[in-house]
Every structure is written in structure tokens, then in C-alpha cells.
Amino acid sequence: MAQSIAFYVLSTFILGFAVLVVTTRNTVHAVLFLVLNFLAVAALYVLLTAQFLAVIQVLVYAGGIVVLYLFVVMLVNLKRPPEDHMAPQRHNWIGFGLSALVLVELGAIIGYGAVAPAGPVGAQTSDLALNNVERVGMLLYTDYLIPFEVASMLLLVAMVGAIILAKREL
Amino acid sequence: MKPAPPSGPTDPAPPAGMAVPAFVSAIEAAIPGSVTQVSYYVGDWAVIVPADKLLEVARFLRDSRETAFDFCSDVTASDWPPRPQRFDVVYCLYSTKHHHRIRLKVRAADGEAVPSVSGIWPAANWLEREVYDLFGVNITGHPDRRRILMPEDWQGFPQRKDYPLEGPGELLMENPLDWLRLKQAREESEIE
Amino acid sequence: MTTHTGQMFDTEELVINMGPQHPSTHGVLRVVLRLDGEKVVSSDVVIGYLHRGIEKLSENRNWTQIILLTDRMDYVAAATNNVGYCQTVEKLMQIEVPRRARYIRTAICELQRIASHCLWLGTHAMDIGAMTVFLYAFRERELILDLFEEYCGARLTYNSMRIGGLPLDIPVGWDRKVLEFCTIMSEKVDEYEELLTHNRIWLERTRGIGVITAEQAIAIGLSGPPLRGSGVPRDIRKDEPYAAYDEMKFDVPVGTSGDTYDRYLVRLEEFRQSIRIIRQAIQGLPEGPIVGKVPRLIKPPAGETYHAIESPKGEIGYFIVSDGKSTNPYRFRVRPPSFCNLQALPQLIKGHLVADVVALIGSIDVVLGEVDR
Amino acid sequence: MIDTYLIPLVKILFVLNATLIGVTYMVLLERKVIAWVQVRLGPMRVGPYGILQPIADAVKLILKEDITPTRADKWVFTAAPIIVMVPALITFAVIPFGPVVNLFGRQVPLYITDVNVGLLYIVSVASIGVYGIILGGWASNSKFPLLASLRASAQLISYEVAVTMTLVSMIMTAGTLSMVKIVESQYDQHLWFIFVQPVAFVLFFIGGLAETNRAPFDMAEAEQELTGGFHTEYSGMRFALFFLAEYANMIVVSSVATTLFLGGWLAPFPNVGWLSFLGYVPSWMWFLLKTFAFLYVFLWVRATLPRYRYDQLMRLGWKVLIPIAIANVVVTGIVKVLF
């Protein structure tokens, strides 16, 4: 009961902030709503007893990545003339396409959830022998080893690339 | 009873029999016609130079081996209103090699151009700005001739001898020369 | 902070005003900095906020009254200004100053140098963030101020010289106290050095910052410790001795690289040399009169002269013109060392970071009272 | 009912108030300690030995006019001090001040909660605090604060990396993320972790100085350069919040360091028989003593060292601390596997 209430409240917040992110005119405010959004998502993770994920969500997204967004927004002069902001018509169909894609995806997820409820996951979380952190670690280094390593490789490449871009003369 | 204003510095010639040091005599030898007068007083040697020869003399004094005046101690001026060329612009030079000093002097009338020596001694930059600021000496060829001590919009040149020392505050601040004229007119009318 | 990738973003130069109200511009100095990120692209030094027209004022004061005005120029080294002015007038009038007076002048000048350097060290260290040194240096400066108070009754603007000698002889027991102070001070200098000289952060903040070569330093007109920090052994006390410096044994410390650290080392060594001079002057203090043959009415004959002495900041010169008729100078001009040293600031800070600007303002040791007069 | 709601509530209230009072008294302590270092007396007027100074300060700051610059972003300007203060306070939720003790016949743990990701929780919450600083500087709409806030945020983010890498090696040593279990594992291993991981300790201490914006890394508020830093435009209680948050962060860092390296609430050498009399001192007392020792070092450093320059600070962070931290993780891993 309490959990449901918390879930719906949090969901309202998440959706509300998401709408605010895209509708606010002030870019810095938009970034701030994004932070709030991420924090609400983290709270949702806590509700699912995935504390590790929640903490990482806050640490990486809210505390790290969005700070960089904020840097960019604050430092790069975004005050372009208004005609630049008026979306040229030719981009509209991309937006429609993407929206449709997301809608289809959401529908698929809902449909799949209706057909096969996610039972085993809930059963695992109630298993108290291993705690949350250890389970994430086990999964990452066993079942998901290859995606994990690929992701770290990708990050390394990104890092090197960033250094090369930033530093012209090596 | 105020004594009459002096018409110029004394600039006494060196006493007879006094040996003129090499760094003074070398100037005339190197650049003929560049020394108007040599003076000596309480141990200081001073040389009066015409304004059009100033840069030449300055460059010689800095570069010649026996003079080697590489350090410009001070640039200043003094104002002698009764004289037609009312300003004495004074350059105090020093040699860090030979440890001797000399003063160059240039006489200039109000508005007469005095070339800037800041190209020879960068140290003269601000000092010349100050001379311009406080005396209104027309320093030409200066890289950055602005007022330095007084506000940028200041009227008049405070170190001149005819600058009014008293007057109604704001008027004095904004336009001392007008105040001067006003005062003069008033005094004249009182006399009549 | 701004990127240098050129075409991708427009970079804007940030113009910031340091001063005239800023905690570390040592008075009312205003520096307009053009920054690229935090790097200084160019700068403009704006002065004159403290201009009181001392030169003009002096033309309407008699010769003795001007001593008091010279106090107000470099107010952290007032006694040195007094000595410089009195010597210039003595030179104009060809007055012989008695030996005892010259010795006391030497001791007072050097005490003043220590006091001024204490203030410099404190504020310089404070600018770089070492705030304890500030209070330690002020603790020692306080001792000097006490000595001055006992000598002439004032703690900041001393008015402690007279044309032709001294206004008063030293109080009984004062010489002993000065020697005691020398003992204390030589220990304390070591203490400052312990806190800073080999401190890694201090080294990183000062080494290689604001380098000026000997030729550049002479050309731009630096004098005093900043010039000696660049390796030019120019010290008026040695080159053109005045007071009793020709009878004193002391060394002129010079730096090698001309950076902030060398200027710091030079000044610290000057603490020690000053202590050495004070000891010699006080221990060898001759008996005799303290005032030379001075006429009742001080009225130098018509003529002009320029005379310079070594103040803690550099060469302080007086150019005085007397018309021989009135009891005040016709033209009174000061060559303020801070003014000429400050001129080098734009050259020094170019290409450095904002944090170095304060270090460099501290390093050339300006007193705005003297810059603006 | 009492166990689930009342006791935690009382604990939260107690810790919150104790922290706030502690923070205000930190200000007095700092002024006093630095004054003693500098042969001064420090505040002496309000109360005996200035003991009531923090109260006077608080009253003064609350009564002061609260100015919002005209061109400031009003909402963000108001929110920034709160964003700084809140993370600093909520980290105390997972700091263990002592073990489970018997209090009025109840088993009460001397910590608010023991989360199984305690250490990460602290790190992540601390990373939110950066926002307050960036936004405070940006919202003031003034040059010096903006410059300072950029410095501060870049500094915090860089040193966060170093500190987090250091913490990784600590997590490997302790084998847990829970703050309580870290202390317990020090008891089990018969050693404070400072002796196991001295390098990590030094790294954490330096990183902690930088994370809390303390000297010699107090770039953000270098008053000699930036006339006060990101909070230049703030006045009254909002300014005080920035100030208090800094001290609260210092206490957090000290508490975390105590927990990680100095055995938290454990008495020194709890396993040595003849030193067991030290156990008569209450455990929370040990915790406070160790934390206090840390805080003292913080103040001592501030009184002694000059300030780093911004680029030197970044160089130290990226080129010295982070590589050493990573090397430390690798070495810890190797040792862990071999022994």
C-alpha cells in the first residue's frame, strides 16, 4: 500500500520534471529539473531495494554527467537569435518518427509485461543471502562480462578521444 | 609684498678650472650643436639640450660606452611662467655601469612638442605621462599619452604655477581655467 | 575555461576590474585585467585614487614643514622619506651633518627598512595564502614601532628628521633596546624562512613567476629589491653612499633568475644585512652634536638638485628647485620608487594567471600613498 | 512502533542538532586554533573566552538584511545555499558514532541507519553538493563569483575522482561498503586500516582538504584573488549556510576518515590485552576524539600553508593523486589475491 503510494508520487514527479525539462525556456533551469528528475529516479530504485543502483544513479548521472551539462550550458553562449530556435520544418518528420518509435517500444514493453509478469526478479531480491552490491558485482563479472568489458573499452576510447580533441599539440 | 616670480632656474656654469667629466663633454663632441649650456651645481651636472636634438642625445647617452646612461631615474618638469619657453623638462639619468648621474634639460613653450624618450628608456613611459598630466607639456610620440594621476576628464594642469589654488569647489574641479578668468575679471573690476 | 578550438565556439575575453576596492591590491590600486580563461592577456594599471597633490602642496609650505608631508608618501617607511628629503636640502645648502646624526640616521633608516620589509613579507605571504606569516611579521614590526615611538613619539608618520641633523638625541637606553631587537629579529627571520623558503607550495607559487631579466629591469626603471632580484647589484647605499653607509660593512644580496622567489630571497637577506648595519651603527655610535650649522631661517640659495637614497622600495629621489628668495621651494618633485616599480606590473603579469597577479603586486611591494602622492 | 519510528526519529533530531551546534562551534574552534597559532587570542568578548561567539554570530547573521542582487536568478540564487547545506547534513545518516549499545534497557545502535552501500551513499550525496557552489556563482550574475564557482566545481569534480578511487582500495581492504561493517572488519583484522593502507590515508586526507575547499586548496574562496569567491554576493543567513556547509563537510570528511582509517568508535588496539582499560572510555567518545583530532589537523594546515594556484591544484589532482590512487587499487587487489 505505502509502496504503491510512494511509487505513484515518485512517478508523478519524474514525469512532471521530465516535462519541465523540455518546456523550460531557461537552459540552466532545464538542467536543474533534469537533476531533480534523476534524483526521483534514484528514489524509485531505492523503492525497488536496488540501493546500489540508486547510489550509482546519483553519483554518475546527477553528480557527474549533469554537472558537465551545466558547465557547457553556462559557458557556451546559447543566446542565439530567435529565428535559430524556430525549428525549420524539415526536421519535424524526424521528431515524429522518433516519437512513434518510442511509443511502439513502450507499447511492446507494456504488452510483454502483461503477457509474462516479471516474477523471477522479484524472487531474487527477497533473497537476503547475497546483498545488493555483491549481486550486481557477480552479474557484471559473470553473465554480463562481455558487455561490461566492451563498455569500459568504449569509455577508454572516448577518454583518449576527448584528450586528443582538447589538446591540439601533444 | 610678494617677490616677483623668478624668470628661470639659475643653471650656473661650472666654475672656472673645473674639469668637465667625459660623459658631459662627449655629448657635444658626438653631436655638434646639441648642447646649449652645461651647468654644474652642488655636484650635479646638467646639460640643456634643444628639443629637436633630444632623441639623438638620449640615444647617444644610452648607447655610448663611456656614458652608458642605461637607467632613467626620473622625468619631471618645472614651470617658469614669465619665460617664453616656460617649461623645463628634466631627465635624470643614471648609469648602472659607471655609477654617474646627469640631468638633461629641454626647454619648451606651452604646446611646443617635446619628443617622448619612452622608446629609449621604457621607464620614461609613466613619468612622461605624469609630466603631461600635471604640466600639460606636449609630449609627442608617446605610446599611451593619457592622464595618469588626475581623473581622465580633469581640466587644466595642476602643477603649473598659474593653476588656481583656491576657488568654489565644483567649478574649480570642472573648469579651473574659467574660474581663473572669472577671478581675474573680478579683481580687475575691484581695482577700477 | 574557455576553449581554444577556435571555430567551434566563440571565446570571449573576460574583463575584470581588480580594485580599487580589492583585498589584495595593497591600497587603492586598480588593475583592469583582460582574461582569456584565467590567463591575463593584457592589463592596464589605473592609479591616482590617493593623489593628494603633495608636490603642489609643498610649493606653499616652508622647508621644515615639508618633512611632515614626506611622511605621508610612503607611510610604511616614513623615516626613510624624511632622511631623503633632509639630505637633499642639506645638499642644496651645503650643510655638513655631524657624524653622530649620520649614524643615528643610518640606524633609523635600517630599522625602517626592516619594518617596511616586515609589512611586505606579511602582505605578500597573505596574498599567497600563508596567513600566519602575516601576523608573525607584524609582531616584529610592532617592536620596531615601539622603538620609534620611544624615539620620536610617533608610530607611523614620524617626522623624525630635521634639515641639518636630528630633532632630538636618542633616549637613554634606546641603543640597548635596539641591540636587543636585533637579537630577536635575527631569530625571527629564520622563523619566516622556515615557514616559507623551502615550502613546496611557496616554491611552486613563486618560482618562475614574473621573470624579468636584468636588461629589462633596468630599462623599465625598476630599482631596489626588484632590480637586485634580477641580478643587478645596484644599491645606492653602496654606489653613492650617504649618511654613514660608507663606514658600514654590509653585502648587497642579488638574485639570479629575477622571479618572484628571488625577489623574496633578496628581501629576506636584506633583513639580515639591515640587522648587521644597525648593530654596527649603534655599537660604533660616536659622541658629538646631532645638528650641524643650520641658519635660523632655512632658505637655500637659488639652484636645483636631484638627490636619491635607497628606500626599502627602491630609489627614492628628490628633485628640488629653490628660487633663493622665498622660504618655500619653487619646485618639489619626488621620484617615487613604488611608482616606477609599478610600471613594470603589466609586463610582469602578462601571460600569468589571476592568482599570480596578486603574488606579483605583492612581489614588487608598492605603497599607493607613494605612487599617487 | 517505538523501535521502528520513535527511536530513529529521536536519533535523527539529535544528530541533526548536534551537527548544527558542532558546526557553529567549529567556527569558533577554527578562529581560536588559528589565533593560537598566530600568537593572538581570538574571540574573547562574548562570554568567557568567547564561548558564546557562535550564538552572537548566528543572531547577527539571522538579523542581517538578506540581499538578492537585482540581476540574479532569484530562484536558483535562493536554492543554492540550501543545495549546499542539505547534502552536508544528510550524510550523517550513515556515519556510525558507536556500536549497538544498551540504552534504558533497549538495544540502540549509535547510528541512524546502516545502509549496505553506506560509503557510496556518502560519495554520491557529496557529489550533489557541487551544484550549490556552481549555481551560487552562476545565479549571482557577477564575474568574480562565476569565476570562483567554475574553479570550485572543476576542483570538486577532479578530486572526487581521486577520493573515490582511494575509497575503492579501502572497500577492497574491508570487503564491504557498509560503514558499520568497515569498523567491524578493522576489529576483526586486529588493525586500524591506517596501518594497512597508509598511502590511501594520505590520499584521502589531501583529497578531503580539496573536497571541502580548505586551505591549501581554498581556491574557490581565495579572498586575495577573487574577493570572497562564489558567495561574494550572498549576505546574511544565506551566506552563513555556505559557511556552515563548509564546516559540516569538514566534519563529514573527518568522520569518514575516522571510520575508514582510525577504527571508528574502537578504542586504540582493542585486541591488546593490557590496553583493555581504554575500553572504559565510551565508544562514541573515541569516535569524537578521533574526529576532533582530524579537524584540528585541518585547521593546523590552514594556519601553516600557503595556497596552491588553480592550475597547480588541478595538476596535483590529475597527475599525482589519481595515478597513485589507481596504482594503490591495483596493488591492493594483487595483495588481496595473493594473501
Notes on the structure:
The complex is a heterotetramer of chains A (about 170), B (about 190), C (about 375) and D (about 350). Chain A folds into two domains: about 1-80, NADH-ubiquinone/plastoquinone oxidoreductase chain 6, subunit NuoJ (Four Helix Bundle (Hemerythrin (Met), subunit A)); about 120-170. In chain A, helix 2 (about 25-45) packs antiparallel against helix 3 (about 50-75). Chain A is globular and about 55 Å long. In chain A, about 80% of the residues lie in helices and about 0% in strands. With about 170 residues, chain A is mainly α. Chain B starts with about 20 loop residues before the first helix and ends with a helix. The model of chain B has no long low-confidence stretch (mean pLDDT about 80). Chain C has a single domain, classed as Cytochrome-c3 Hydrogenase, chain B, CATH 1.10.645. Helix content of chain C is about 45%, strand content about 10%. Chain C has helices at about 55-60, 65-70, 80-95, 100-130, 130-150, 175-195, 200-205, 215-220, 225-230, 235-240, 260-285, 335-340, 345-350, 355-365, 370; strands at about 15-20, 30-35, 40-45, 305-310, 315-320, 330-335. A three-stranded antiparallel β-sheet of chain C has the order 1-2-3. In chain C, strands 4-5-6 form a three-stranded antiparallel β-sheet. In chain C, helix 4 (about 100-130) packs antiparallel against helix 14. The chains are: A mainly alpha (about 170), B alpha/beta (about 190), C mainly alpha (about 375), D mainly alpha (about 350). The interface between A and D is medium-sized, with 23 and 25 residues.
Question: What structural class do helix, strand and pairing data of chain B support?
Answer: alpha/beta
Q: In this structure, how is the largest beta sheet of chain D organized?
A: 2 strands, antiparallel
Q: How widely separated are the two ends of chain D?
A: 46 Å
Overall pLDDT level of chain D:
83
SSE layout and pairing:
The complex is a heterotetramer of chains A (170), B (192), C (373) and D (339).
Chain A: H1 2-23, H2 27-47, H3 51-75, H4 82-85, H5 92-115, H6 119-125, H7 132-141, H8 145-166
Helix pairs in contact in A: 1-2, 2-3
Chain C: E1 14-18, E2 30-36, E3 39-46, H1 54-58, H2 65-71, H3 78-93, H4 99-128, H5 131-152, H6 174-196, H7 200-206, H8 214-220, H9 225-229, H10 236-239, H11 260-283, E4 303-311, E5 314-322, E6 331-335, H12 337-342, H13 345-349, H14 354-364, H15 368-372
Antiparallel strand pairs in C: 1-2, 2-3, 4-5, 5-6
Helix pairs in contact in C: 2-3, 3-4, 4-5, 4-11, 4-14, 5-6, 6-11
Chain D: H1 2-37, H2 53-63, H3 74-90, E1 100-103, E2 106-109, H4 118-139, H5 143-174, H6 179-188, H7 193-196, H8 198-211, H9 223-226, H10 236-261, H11 283-304, H12 310-338
Antiparallel strand pairs in D: 1-2
Helix pairs in contact in D: 1-2, 1-10, 1-11, 2-10, 3-4, 3-10, 4-5, 5-8, 5-12, 8-10, 8-12, 10-11
